Amino acid sequence: MKLLLLCLGLTLVCAQEGNSDVVRSNFDIPKITGEWFSILLASDNREKIEENGNGSMRVFVEHISLLKNSSLLFKFHTKVNGVCTELPLICDSTGEDGIYTVSCEYV
């Protein structure tokens, strides 16, 4: 029993180890620009990302560009009436490191 508790305690200590790959507020925006490949979708409302059905949030990122005014341009693709359609989305910088705002009319 003591050995089991020791293993549990060590597991919890190991789980607390920080992840050095986590993005911090001083990350380099130009490093995220370029071509992207969506491999997974996640949502707390599964119906929004399902292939069959509504799927209104089933989008795939193709490209992220950094604009001259420090805004980000996302190029998404989604199906609209059964046709693959490009959806551009511009995120404006708030002036704070790594924080952007966006207004979206697609949903």
UniProtKB/TrEMBL annotation:
Coiled coil: none annotated. InterPro entries: Calycin, Lipocalin, Lipocalin_CS, Lipocln_cytosolic_FA-bd_dom. It comes from the Eukaryota. Residues 33-105 form the Lipocalin/cytosolic fatty-acid binding domain. Residues 1-15 form the signal peptide. Keywords: Signal, Transport. Pfam families: Lipocalin. GO terms for molecular function: odorant binding; small molecule binding. GO terms for cellular component: extracellular space. Belongs to the calycin superfamily. Lipocalin family. This is Lipocalin/cytosolic fatty-acid binding domain-containing protein.
